[in-house]
Amino acid sequence: MIKEWxxxxxxxxxxxxxxxxLIRFRWWQLPIxxxxxLRLMKDDGRSTAYAVDVRHWSNYASDNLKAHLYRDGRQYxxxxxxxxxxxxxxxxxxxxxxxxxxxxxxxxxxxxxYQLVPDPHSxxxxxxxxxxxxxxxxxxxxxxxxGVLLAALALLIPQIAEQLTKAEGIAHYTGTFTSPIDxxxxxxxxxGLATATASTxxxxxxxxxxxLDGGAG
Length: 217
What we know:
elongated, membrane, 9 strands, 38% helix, 2 domains, five-stranded antiparallel beta sheet, four-stranded antiparallel beta sheet, alpha+beta
């Protein structure tokens, strides 16, 4: 119910595009742009080329961060994120986290979901190629990212508990808690950099957990 309500809200944000041409992906756009092509079949058997283009880090601080939908090489629609674009046979949903895209999927009218395949020149596309060509290395990197975030969470929870129980209203009922972990400034900085790197790596695979990646952000 909530998911459907959010989808309807996102559909209401869609605006018509201005027809500008889709610019091919440039190498220097690796940290600031995500591009996901999608080819859909029409009822008459012909195909239409769509593409989702998000310039995320280039204007992340802006409230006007948008996803752009192109059709046959021309801008067809745009929407603030999170976005939901109506396309033949379903909807394309786009969502973003602090570290990159966390969702870029085609959802059919029957509810089946397909993650879009990234442009091979994009950062997401290069990460996908690593997964195809070197699956063992890819799994190792993925497990390292997950391990870093789990370790960060384990270090963070006691420190949060200590801060919460310092409040008189809470301490009156629970008592105070002293965290056995007290990282120095340099340790917290290193931990922050490690978690940001791990969450960014996961975002390249469109992996997201509100507990792990949300906490890192």
